Amino acid sequence: MDSAELLTEQALPTPNAGPSVQEMVIADIRVRMQVGLERYGTLLQPGNGRDALRDALRDAYEEAVDLAMYLRQAIAERDATPRVCVDCHRAARELEQGVDGEWRGPSCHKRHIERGTGVQLPIDQEGGDSRAQH
Fold it and tell me: Is the model's pTM score more than 0.90?
């Protein structure tokens, strides 16, 4: 993932029938509360006789390392997926619809990405161009 892609604005989110992220986090907290009750016999509370800073720093560090590994895995898997930029995708769609233009393929896509003007979309996994998939 390049920095140009990170700076590209996305469309506003589209509401759907799925649960909100907030609802999922609340459910996760409830599960963690139950784990704490089963493991320690009590919920986590201030003034419980443990060194909270020591526990928090150690636990947070371990979780941060795990998070870094999960994020790196996701980036590597995403980068391994062939992608084509929106400009090239648009050119391919226009050709499909009979609009005058020329499909310029991967070299055009590479220039868009290098200039930071292309936003990437997946292309088909069989090595074809995006016209076959979209």
Answer: no
